[in-house]
Design brief:
Strand content: 5-15%
CATH architecture of the largest domain: 3-Layer(aba) Sandwich
Number of domains: 2
Structural class: alpha/beta
CATH topology of the largest domain: Rossmann fold
Order of helices and strands: EHHHHHEHEHEEE
Distance between the termini: 7 Å
Shape: elongated
Number of helices: 7
Radius of gyration: 19 Å
CATH class of the largest domain: Alpha Beta
Oligomer: single chain
Number of strands: 6
Largest sheet: 6 strands, parallel
Amino acid sequence: MVKAVVFDLDDTLISEKQYIKSGYKHISELLSNRFNRDETELYNLLIGIFSESPLNVFNRLFDKLGITYTQNDILELVESYRNHLPSIEFFEDVISCLESLKKERVKLGIITDGYADAQFQKLKAVKATDYFDEIIVTDELGREYWKPHPKAFEMMKEKFNIEYNQMIYVGDNPEKDFYISNIYPIKTIRILRDGVYKEKCYLKNIRETHSINSLSELNTFFKVK
């Protein structure tokens, strides 16, 4: 009997690409005011640079623009990016899925990696606390506790007062979201989104229990009563 469904956040409940675009729009506005540059041009440059490689995007932007910068300048932009309140929303299949699970009295949780400031801003933007009973941002525990470390799952089990085999975890990233089933008897489901990490390899070839194309399929896999 399933008593709790726990979700990943990025590219499971919300689009990481949408978040990145929101962040770059924020940075473009900031730099436009600072250097008297065209905001749209800056945004398009950022998107283009990121498309080539997600590494050192702000450094490469300044290099392309011929702007002298220090490491502190880059850190300031990174902090501004992570702390901005993003213009994002849940994927269209999320709310109806959560409402359906709520009707079945299933407890709902989130376990998400990523820098804490950024993750809390994402959660705030979609008003996640209105829908979920428990939310664990693993970065608050320490970087070493990001998935696939089992600590957040152990905490969720205790918070919900359930057994591991009564929990489902829904994620998208093969590199870290499904390995937990090799540690505890947690059923895992992969949601097939057009996500940033969709091409990652499975950690130690541990695959999901099931895969779905939409969260509307979730209730068909397990009896939740």
